Amino acid sequence: MRRTKVWDLPVRLFHWAIVVLIFCSWATQEWNHMEWHVRSGYAILTLLLFRIVWGFIGSDTARFTGFLRSPVAALRHLARIHRSEADREIGHNAAGGWMVLLMLVLIGVQAGTGLFANDDANTEGPLMHLVDKDQSNWLSHIHSLNFTLIEAVIVLHVLAIAVYAVLKRQNLVRPMVTGTKLLPVDAAAPRLVRPIWAVLTLAAAVAVVAWLVRV
Q: Which of 26, 89, 90, 210 is exposed most, by the fewest CB atoms within 10 A?
């Protein structure tokens, strides 16, 4: 076994930034700091756009083609979840890849509906003027309902991490912190894209969101 770099810095920063921002979005809504809630939403949308593009041009383990496998492969992986075995996955496992896609879709729905939402008080999404009040109210309802789904998926994700730690003796958190994983010496290291491309992608995402909120 050898320690191999599997996660690039952009993916790891995205992961932990999303964790922080989702908590901030929840907290600012609960404590009625809606100005900061809106700002958190803009940041989430920016990172989401970055991650989507990075899923096509980024490092091997960041690309959708690198971790999205068939549903059958995911079910086969879950059927072995009770077995204690070494982690030989270069990136996301077959089930984890679908979890990532589900979370990205839910975050996309959350950010998208937030652009048109309102709270019947002083806060309106920057694109609310493009729809009528009834449509905005409906999208606001979806915005609220979808966050409940996000909370459920977060709980499921944390439980999965615990199950892997207990049943399979695999630490899924450490590689997302350090970027490295112990893999067989004959395992091919993934190709990692230079960070400058991540910086340029993020800058483009910032520009897109800045344009959106001024439409």
A: 210
pTM: 0.94
Q: How far apart are CA 98 and CA 68, in angstroms?
A: 7
Q: How far apart are CA 133 and CA 183, in angstroms?
A: 55
User: How many CA atoms lie within 13 Å of 149's alpha carbon, on the beta-carbon side?
Assistant: 16
d(CA 202, CA 57): 12
Residue linked to tokens 């999208």: 139
Report helix, strand or coil for 155: helix
Neighbours of 140 (CB within 10 A): 20
Residue with tokens 């960070």: 195
Which residue has tokens 């096509």?
Answer: 56
